[in-house]
Design a protein that fits this description.
single chain; 160 residues; alpha/beta; binds adenosine-5'-triphosphate; binds magnesium ion
Length: 160
């Protein structure tokens, strides 16, 4: 049986931590959809189109990974695309509470979908998109934490 997974998130923008997780998931599942939520309530810095475009470029070398944008319920997206696994990341204990709540809610909404958690390599455990955005807006250096393509976009923001 082929295992198809989705990795949902806001990816505003995609970081080396996200990338680490996608690569791990790509080794575990036959197909991985990186599903980028439009998430207007989070007021993303990058548009959905930009976030999708950056993730596609950063993950272009992975043949079993596809990037798609979506709005609406994550479990509905999973059902529509026949994805039986939702991958999420745990950086630290602080992620656990929210992720545990989300996984339980997802199970109540869609019993057939399993959530699995992956952890990144230690050097990525402190990276979050929100910190990257903050560093970039304040004129700091982000090249250690994101792909060069993303870094270039972040630099434009500062100038813009
Ligand atoms: N550095 C990282 N290592 C492992 N998992 C991560 C990392 N960054 C994010 N994740 C996980 O990826 C999923 C999607 O995260 P999301 O798009 O919210 O990124 P984020 O970095 O948490 O962004 P934000 O700071 O805007 O919330 C979540 O399960 C989150 O825990
Ligand atoms: Mg987050």
């Amino acid at each position: 049986m082929k295992r198809h997974a989705m990795y949902p998130g806001t990816f505003d923008p995609i970081t080396n931590g996200h990338q680490d997780l996608v690569r791990r998931a790509a080794g575990l599942f036959d197909r991985v959809i990186v599903a980028i939520a439009s998430n207007p309530n989070k007021a993303p810095l990058f548009s959905l189109e930009q976030r999708v475009d950056l993730a596609r470029k950063v993950l272009a070398d992975l043949p079993n990974v596809e990037v798609m944008g979506y709005s609406g319920l994550t479990v509905e997206f999973a059902r529509k695309h026949d994805l039986s696994v939702v991958v999420r990341g745990l950086r630290a204990v602080s992620d656990f509470e929210f992720e545990f709540q989300l996984a339980n809610m997802s199970r109540h909404l869609a019993r057939e979908i399993e959530t699995v958690f992956l952890t990144p390599q230690e050097q990525f455990t402190f990276i979050s998109s929100s910190l990257i955005r903050e560093i970039a807006v304040l004129g700091g250096e982000t090249k250690e934490f994101v792909h060069p393509i993303v870094e270039a976009e972040l630099k434009k923001l500062k100038r813009g």
